Amino acid sequence: MYELSGSVALNYRDEGEGAPVLFVHGVGADLESWDGVLRNLCPGRRYLRYDQRGHGQSRRTPGPYTLQDLSGDAVALLDHLGVECVSVVGFSLGGLVAQAIALDHPERVQCLTLISTVAGRTPQEQIRVNERAETLAREGATRHLANAVDRWFTPEFVVAHPEVLEARRQKSLQNDPECYVAAYRVLAGSDLGDHLYRVTAPTLIMTGENDIGSNPRMSEFIHSQIAGSQLHILPRLKHSVLLEAPEQIAALIDPFLAEHCGA
């Protein structure tokens, strides 16, 4: 546990040796959401992951949060671990955090992987995510998660792996409700699309073909803004690609890291 301040303490794992890679999870999840991906990555790197403030085993930090709070947490953790430059991999809200790190601390980012994340929302997309944030705040995680299953997983995965859905549901329900809402409001209220042209790090972008909230149009927009970036639209998949298709995600990340972080 890293005690960043009186109200913020971050649970983290620091595993392996070699070129460092930082993983930033999505809203309502924790560092264990990367387990499946990490099992399929080359072991010859230093893999860093943490529970974002208010999530997992990190301290229940009162909100509201800002995107700069969350990206600042990540950079402070890197400072604590003595890591000057890192490859950053972010999923969903973690992808927003990764974007913010790359924009505000470009010298710290060796390369960037953005998975199922957001930028350049249309007014209609903004309305929908605001409605989801308000549903979570008003009715709690149970209703929010019931509505999310169809957005997150393919129908065949829902049928074949109910245990994965239940584990994800329980993980979210363990979050402090106020922290969950504070983090979700960051996801709903942040958009760095107008600034992404300034990202200079080599960037890998991917999302599910049928992801509604982090849709292919957004990933194509991110790709158009970041010069030299790579884009992959994953057939059939929806939002929760880390749980439904970790091998596929790792198969895209591994060669990208090998090319750009030297391991």
Describe the structure.
This protein has helices spanning 35-39, 67-81, 93-104, 123-139, 141-152, 155-160, 162-173, 177-189, 216-225, 241-244, 246-260, and strands at 2-3, 9-10, 12-15, 20-24, 46-50, 86-91, 109-115, 203-208, 230-234. The longest helix is centred in the middle third of the chain and has 17 residues, at 123-139. α2 (67-81) crosses α3 (93-104) and α5 (141-152) runs antiparallel to α7 (162-173). The radius of gyration is 17 Å and the shape is globular. A seven-stranded mixed β-sheet has the order 3-5-4-6-7-8-9, sandwiched between helices. Helices cover 46% and strands 16% of the residues. The mean pLDDT is 90. With 263 residues, it is of the alpha/beta class. It has one domain: 3-Layer(aba) Sandwich (Rossmann fold), CATH 3.40.50.
Distance between the termini: 27 Å
Describe the main β-sheet briefly: 7 strands, mixed
Fraction in beta strands: 15-25%
Please tally the helical runs, counting DSSP H or I stretches of 4 or more residues. Answer: 11
Please estimate the helix content: 40-55%
- Write down how many β-strands occur, each being a DSSP E stretch of 2 or more residues: 9
Helix-strand category: alpha/beta
Average pLDDT metric: 90
